[in-house]
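Example record

The entry below shows one chain as it appears in the dataset: sequence first, then structure tokens.
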Amino acid sequence: MLPEPSSLLEARGLVREFDLPGRGLFGPRKFLTAVSDVSFAIRRGEILGLVGESGSGKTTIGRMVMRLLDPTRGQVFFDGFDLTALKGRQLRQQRRRFQMVFQDPYASLNPRMRVGEIVGEPLLIHDLAHSPAERRERVARLFERVGLSSHDLDRYPREFSGGGRQRVGIARAIACSPDLLVADEPIASLDLSIGAQIINLFASLNETERMSILFISHDLSVVRYLSDRVVVLYRGRAVESGPTPEVLTNPAHPYTRLLVGRDQAVPVEPRNGESVSSGLCPFLSRCPDALPVCREVAPEHFVNDGGGRDVVCHLAARQVLWTPSSSSPSIQGIV
């Protein structure tokens, strides 16, 4: 099946398994399923929020989209190209069009390089500047774009605050004018005032340059403010998705309701992979409203054609007029 023409990026049936220690020479493989059959799409110029508590698989999905991790199964399409099938020069040619802003703004920067060199490196790798002087001039403009001064080019990362380092990381990410930014908890280590400035910077990039953004966060208030649509993850599975105002104002899945109704993230269960590998609802052991059918049959993806919503829950499907999705359920629900 070909990717949707209106979508810049589509993830289809992503699965990522990590091997666990303790396997004998001839014993069975032991693994943890960090992501299980997750699909979503991002339209051009759109911000998609990816939310869930710690351990839900958000960062793993972001790294698979970036091809920093290969999926165990599934595909990632970017502007019609199957990224999971690209290698070498073909992947490098496409990589300049999608970039990542990492959670830790210090660990992601080389402490031995001046920040001007760090931000100019993508221009050098992709041959986007004809001379060192042109490259430095472009880096200076990028610094001004993200709220830094051109006088900062010769400083080292250690000379910046956390917010300043994150701005350097964003400048590096947008140096090649990418079509897509993957932002992995970009304000998690920043204080509120600096975090608000970074969020406004993302909003500005989306508005003025029409960059699509995959915004990964556990902070629902930020996702509500910034994103057009949202995908809610629980233990590696997408349990609900749709337009952000509708999902966060009127959540259909019991887990989404639990997230929205609390100021802080819900405590995480030990991840032994049992409920994920069983095929039943991963939220079953914590759900206060579980039905008998929930312990017997895995829930389908149910879609509400009028609102563009997708929910994976027997209870929600009975309470509202939802219809089963026929194929590619997660994509149908949010594209």
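Notes for this example: Residues 257 and 308 are 18 Å apart (CA to CA). The radius of gyration is 21 Å.
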